[in-house]
Amino acid sequence: MIRLDKHEDGLWVVTIDRPDKANSLTREMLEELAGIAEAAQEARALVLTGAGKVFSAGMDLEAAKSGLATDGVWERLSGALAGLPGMTVAALNGTVAGGAIGMVLACDLRVAVAGTKVFYPVMQRGFLPQPSDPARLAALIGPSRARMILMAGEKIDSDTALAWGLIDRMVEADPVEAARALCADTLAATPAHAAAIKAMCRG
User: Fold this and answer.
1) Fewer Cβ within 10 Å of end Cβ, the chain: N or C?
2) What is the pLDDT of residue 188?
3) How many Å apart are CA 137 and CA 104, to the nearest integer?
4) Strands laid side by side in the 109-113 sheet
5) Which CATH number fits domain 2-201: 3.90.226.10, 2.40.170.20, 3.40.50.620, 3.40.50.970?
6) What is the pLDDT along the chain (203 residues), one digit of tens a residue?
7) Given this model, what pLDDT does residue 48 score?
8) Strand partners, 174
9) Backbone angles phi, psi at 6, to 5 degrees
10) CA–CA distance, 146 with 137 (Å, rounded to integer)
11) What is the 3-state secondary structure (H, E, C) of the chain?
């Protein structure tokens, strides 16, 4: 249910491939994603996407019964993505919800197809967001808008997400191709040069 395609130029494309369940995530899927992210130090760039028309509906409802909502694997995944030295791009093929937002926030850039929605209903469902998510969200869109999503439960459409800076580019067709184009300069550079510039962007 997780597909990894490694390209000769150093690009890794990771696909959440469970479209019949809106790419909802089980613990096993999250562990596989985290393992890939931890192994991706050798990747020059990594693109994260989903199969079908939804990036991910978040946590699998059956898995939720076993405490997945508060499992440390979410933080392990987002931390591994955030720590990669190469370019990381979330290519949103559709709506992203709940805990799946954490991996999207941990990427360097976010590309989305028109019509994508973003929502994180932690207030409604009685869970805390994963520890790093609120800070990353606030860094992108500001504290008040982060509260709109996390506390007011707002569902953000793609136009609003683009205006707020939650996504960086909106496309009409294949977001993976758009993500790959954004990675072109990084793929052409030496890994050390790319890592140095990325580190400088962190401040």
Assistant:
1) C
2) 97
3) 10
4) 2-6, 11-16, 45-50, 87-92, 109-113, 169-171
5) 3.90.226.10
6) 999 999 999 999 999 999 999 999 999 999 999 999 999 999 999 999 999 999 999 999 777 678 888 899 999 999 999 999 999 999 999 999 999 999 999 999 999 999 999 999 999 988 899 999 999 999 999 999 999 999 999 999 999 999 999 999 999 999 999 999 999 999 999 999 999 999 999 86
7) 98
8) none
9) -105, 125
10) 6
11) CEEEEECCCCEEEEEECCHHHCCCECHHHHHHHHHHHHHHHHCCEEEEEECCCEEECCECHHHHCCCHHHCCHHHHHHHHHHCCCCEEEEEECCEEEHHHHHHHHCCCEEEEECCCEEECCHHHHCCCCCCCHHHHHHHHHCHHHHHHHHCCCCCEEHHHHHHHCCCCEEECCCHHHHHHHHCHHHHHCCHHHHHHHHHHHCC
Tokens standing for residue 14:
């990771």
Whether 151 and 123 have beta carbons less than 8 Å apart is answered as yes
Structure tokens at 54: 């939804």
Angle at 56 between CA 102 and CA 146, to 5 degrees: 40
Q: Residue 174: what residue type?
A: D
pLDDT for 97: 97
